[in-house]
Amino acid sequence: MELGLVGLGKMGGNMRERIRRAGHTVVGYDRNPDLADVHSLEELVGKLKGPRVVWVMVPAGDATQATIDALGELLSEGDVVVDGGNSRWTDDEKHAKELAAKGIGFVDCGVSGGVWGLENGYALMYGGSAEDVAKVQPIFDALKPEGEFGSVHAGKVGAGHFAKMVHNGIEYAMMQAYAEGWELLEKVDSVTDVREVFRSWQEGTVIRSWLLDLAVNALDDDEHLDKLRGYAADSGEGRWTVEAAIDNAVPLPAITASLFARFASRQEDSPQMKMIAALRNQFGGHAVENKK
């Protein structure tokens, strides 16, 4: 299968490589010419045979809107656009309607896997019509982890990004719990090797997880996280999760508290946020702020 891929950053570049390893043809475009296969969106579209599928992996908001607007002028009836970035689900219905007026399909896809996705595969949550999803299915199959799970047609347009948003909200709460436990262990005199306590939890406990494995990786790199400033940004999806909970009258006390804890990190050098920052860097390559 042929795929056009727009955006070849940390995620997009590795996705291009994984799809190519599965035997598909990928034509990639990025504003950075050192990363791109072609020099423009026009050239990208021109190299694909119809019906075309173009996957967009650019920052949510204005960048995504501009890219979809441009593709709407270049693509033809029967083609499909996939938004694989972290767009807000409410934008998906707008994009689908705009493209549908030109006979172009739209699929939204939440992608999880971070910098590890190239080797491990990406968890995919996608929304759209069965017809449009079927046109993209070989790419979904190439990107997903091996095995039965890791990919789901979550529902109508918007369902994929909504599912990924909730996934990230849960991630906020899980990271916060590990961070709070780590700070408490570090605080008491009786526990003399916090890193090995975390390592011992990796087998046989009910709290073992990939996030726990990444926490141990971070502690192996910097045992007490002394190199990090206790600051952790929020990508926006935690906020959207809490807003959706308010709109639907669903109580989310743990996720909401974890979001507000991120805000607290901007007021002081929070020990808990050192662990949150370390975990975000481990799974997603997110920037950290080192102590000066």
From TrEMBL:
Keywords, ordered alphabetically: Gluconate utilization, Oxidoreductase
Pfam family, one: 6PGD
Oxidoreductase keyword on record: yes
The 6-phosphogluconate dehydrogenase C-terminal domain, residue ranges: 160-287
EC number: 1.1.1.343
Oxidoreductase keyword on record: yes
Top-rank taxon: Bacteria
GO molecular function, one term: oxidoreductase activity
Membership in a protein family: Belongs to the HIBADH-related family. Belongs to the 6-phosphogluconate dehydrogenase family.
Cited PANTHER family: 6-PHOSPHOGLUCONATE DEHYDROGENASE (PTHR11811)
Protein name: Phosphogluconate dehydrogenase (NAD(+)-dependent, decarboxylating)
Organism whose genome encodes this protein: Streptomyces ramulosus
